[in-house]
Every structure is written in C-alpha cells, then in structure tokens.
Amino acid sequence: MNRKIDFLIIGGGISGLSLALKLAKLTPDEKILLITKEYLAECSTFYAQGGIACVWNNNDSFEKHIQDTLIAGDGLCNENVVRNILTQAPERIKELIELGVEFTRNENGDYDLGKEGGHSERRILHVNDQTGQNVEQKLIESIKKIENVEIKEHWCAINLFARNFQCYGAYILDQKSEKIHNVAAKATILATGGAGKIYLYTTNPDIASGDGIAMAYRAGATISNMEFYQFHPTCLYHPYAKSFLITEAMRGEGAVLKDVRGNEFMHNYHSSKGLAPRDVVSRAIDAELKKTGDDYIHLDIASYKSPKFIKSHFPGVYESCLKFNIDITNEPIPVVPAAHYCCGGVLAGINGKTEVKNLYVIGESACTGLHGANRLASNSLLEGLVGAHECANSLAEQISDLKVKEFKQWEPGHAVPSTEAVIITQNWDEIRRFMWNYVGIVRTDKRLQRAKKRINMLLDEINQYYWDFKIEKNLVELRNLATVAKIIIVSAISRKESRGIHYNLDHPNKSEMSRATTIRRPW
Ligand code: FAD
Ligand code: SIN
Fold first, then answer.
1. How far apart are alpha carbons 31 and 411 in whole angstroms?
2. What is the rounded distance in angstroms from the CA atom of residue 356 to the CA atom of residue 182?
3. Number of domains in the chain
4. Residues 53 and 89 in one domain
5. Catalytic residue flag (residue 278)
6. Residues 86-122: pLDDT tens digits?
7. Residue 380 in contact with ligand 2 by CB distance below 6 A
8. What's the CATH code of the domain at 82?
9. How many H helices and E strands in the chain?
10. Segment 331-341, tens digit of pLDDT
11. Which helix (H) or strand (E) holds 158?
12. 242 is in which domain, residue-wise?
C-alpha cells in the first residue's frame, strides 16, 4: 500500500502531539499523518507524575535552573542548549495553560510549585501527581479538532526508508489489517520516546522499546551518550505492580528513605539526603540492598504528613498503592530503583534536525545536549515541548524546498508466519535480565564484556528470525531492543571513567578529557 503525505510524525506523546498541533497551524495546506504503536494515550507522557520544571516565581531565576541542570549533567551538557530550552519554559507552559491544562494551585491561588532531587528551588508545575495524564488528554482533545492531522493508532513503524543520508519516509505495519504501508513524506519526525523495556525493571510503559533510536541508527544517524540510562530511585516493589513509579515529588514534600528495619541511610551518601540527584540516590539504594541482602527499601511519608495532606497531594499514588493493599497514609511504601529515562539518543539539534536529511527526532528519543550525563528531574516534558516548537518552526520555514518522493514497496521475501513465538519471548527476557545485571546501576569491565558477547550472539539469531518470519510488532520491538542494547553496551565500554549515571567500579574516577559518546553504523 503506497501513501504520500507531507509530514509523517511517528509518536503521540507530548513531543509528537505538540508538534502536530503547531505544524498544522503553521502549514495549514499540508497533510500531516501521526501514528502511534498502541492507542493514542499509551505513552510515557501519560504516566508522568512529578510535573514540568519551569522558573515561575521571583525567588527563582533562569540562572539557578541552568546551574542545577549543568550540575546534574556532570560536565556533559551543552550550555547553549540548556539556556535556550530552560528560558523558553514559561512561554511553552503558558501555551499548555491556554490548551486547558489546569496546574495545581495553592490556598493563595498561585501555582503550587513542587520540589524534586537536584533542584535548588521549588519550580515544578504539576497537576497533583498526574501531570502527564492531564497534559496528554488536553493535547489529544486539541488535536482531534484539527483537520489537516490524520491519526492512525496501532500503526507500528518498522523501518525508515533512507539512502545516502536522506530519509524518504517509513514502512509501517497496520497491526489490525496486518498490511504494510510505505508512507512517503517530505519530512519524517521520530517522537518515539525512550527504551526502558531494555531493562528487567522499568517505570516505562511497554511502548518504550527504543524503536526510533534503532530506526535512526539503521538510517545512518549518529547515536549519542547511550551509556547514560537513568534509573529512578523509587518504583513500587510488588509482584503485581508492573512499572509503577512513586514520584520524587513525595521526597520533595518530606518523605524519607529508610531500610526495612526503619534506619535512615541517605545522610551517609549526600548532604541533600533523599533529594540528592537521582544517580546518587539510586546508587545509594543499590549499595544498601547489596549490603543488607534485602529486596527493597522503604519510602516513608506516613510518619511525616497527615492522611489529608497525602491524599490531596498524591491522589494517584495513594489510589494505586491501595489497589495492592498498601495504605500509604499509615505504612511505608516498598520501593526499588528502576530504569526510567534515556538521557542519550539520536544526535539532534533543539529543532530535531539530524545528520540524515529530512529526518527529525524530538523528545526522549533525541540527544540535544540538555541532559548530559544525567537528567535533572522534570526537565524532559519541557524538552518535548520546546523540541516540538522549534521543529515546527524549522519545517514551516523550509516548506517550499521540501519534496516528497515515493520509494519501493516492502518486500516480504521468503518470510512465513512464525511458528515459534517462544524465541521472541526467550530473547526478550534474556536481554532484559543481562542488561539489568551487567549494564545496570553499577557496572564493571567484565560485566560489560559479558553483556557484549551475549548481545552479539542474540543479534545474529534475531536478525535471522527477522528475515525468515512474517513481520509482527513483537519482532519489530525485539530487533530494536537488541540494537539499542548493543549501542548502550558499546557506549558504556568506551567510557573509561565514572560520570553522571554511568558508574564503573574499574574506572571509579572522572577523566579530565571527557566528551559525548557517539556511535554510528557499522559498530
Ligand atoms: P512518549 O510520551 O513516550 O511517546 C512515544 C510515542 O511513540 C508513543 O505514542 C508510542 O506509541 C510511539 N511509538 C514508539 N515506537 C513506535 C513505533 N515503532 N511506531 C509507531 N509509534 C511508535 N518527565 C518529566 O519531565 N516530568 C515527570 O514528572 C516525569 N514523570 C515520569 C513518570 C514516568 C512513569 C515515566 C515513564 C516518565 C516520566 N518522565 C517525566 C519522563 C517523560 O514522561 C518522558 O520523557 C516524555 O513523556 C517522553 O515524551 P515523548 O513524546 O518523547 O515520548
Ligand atoms: C517523578 O515524578 O519522580 C518523575 C519526574 C521525572 O522523571 O522527571
């Protein structure tokens, strides 16, 4: 099935939807197709809890937010990018308010500003503890009113069509009809989010399999800083609670980390205790768990705040924990760290421009230089908004120079329906487990080499399977997951120091000459 379109946006989270909204207004005569792998609202954006960082009151300043971001990024942020993105925050937030997002207010009627790890001021605008859900819903309501945006749910991009560093569009699997479309576009924009599903424990929803990063890599783009996969310190520990985050904002309101015997420990690791940057807190928890042999630690808010305060500030966490028989108003919450955010990604400008012509990448899939070696909490929704804004302006400016060119149909070759789906689940489980054990919070040279050996073996097997069997979403995801896992491993091996999130026991110090990691085909 051949289709021609002006703009193809892959992804319907904060970055994809914001881009579609802006682009539709700036280029009303162009046709935009936005696709999502699952139903529209299913994305990391929907699950965001804490909020969006923005300098909003007079005690705060852009300079303070910039410094906090640079400190968290541990020497690898691009300061110009940091300045550009953070100083745009108030404008971008006002646009969300105009769309109808009702950020939580305090008793005085002012916006209630939350605090999270690494922030020197209260500056997190939030909608209780369900910020992402509210933002995503308002964006969806708005996009549905726009005529020149067509939305296709359950359409999974398989691969880009690119030749000589130029992108012409993408092959897309319609999961319902099982047909493969080749969609030719003047520009293709990846807004595909992160890759948390590479790890055994993650806060991310199932869509986060690194598809955009793997597709861009195959198309010839440079992938940068992938060794910096951020681990969130507090994910609910419960056999049936898949991926449920306990927001850092809870520590911002006084919740304390303790071992299961009730002993506080964070003072042994950092003067800011539980509000130290995420890498420090996650490593501290990891060290405590290894020392004590416990399976989890506790996050205690019940001892410090009244049930009324807890229920009004954290209604989402309260209700979700109650479903697992944990009443957070009178008992501590069992938590563990989990993979949360991809600080690296496809090397791109703030406007999403990559080295592959007509291929743009925005949001969590992009590496713009904002996060460096470690992302400051609540800076990523903001990056998605700014990336979308800049990308829309950039595409609108070039519109008269952009041309659409059709490309060849998908060739199924000798592929037959899969008879052994077990291979997919087996490989998937294996990757997630060794990534967690060998390429997790604390790494060593030996563990990284072990992981490299295994991923090379699995990639051979998966590539064979990919060409032999009929395309389905699980297989597309597995192949991408394995590709991104290898990029993370190779990046981690090449970094002979410990910096930000990347901590290697064999190279515990920072090197003086540190720079971003870049990976490009072939390895
Ligand atoms: P996403 O919102 O993840 O959207 C990705 C989209 O791409 C989806 O629509 C998906 O279907 C689509 N897609 C992916 N692959 C394909 C494919 N092959 N074909 C078609 N479509 C595809 N950040 C903050 O700043 N503040 C917070 O409070 C915060 N809390 C968080 C809480 C949780 C639990 C999680 C997981 C993350 C949180 N983050 C937070 C991070 C932030 O939510 C994400 O970085 C951000 O939402 C990413 O937005 P995005 O638009 O790049 O991608
Ligand atoms: C949280 O609410 O703890 C998540 C914030 C973030 O990831 O930025």
1. 27
2. 19
3. 3
4. yes
5. yes
6. 999 999 999 999 999 999 999 999 999 999 999 999 9
7. yes
8. 3.50.50.60
9. 15, 17
10. 999 999 999 99
11. strand 155-163
12. 234-338
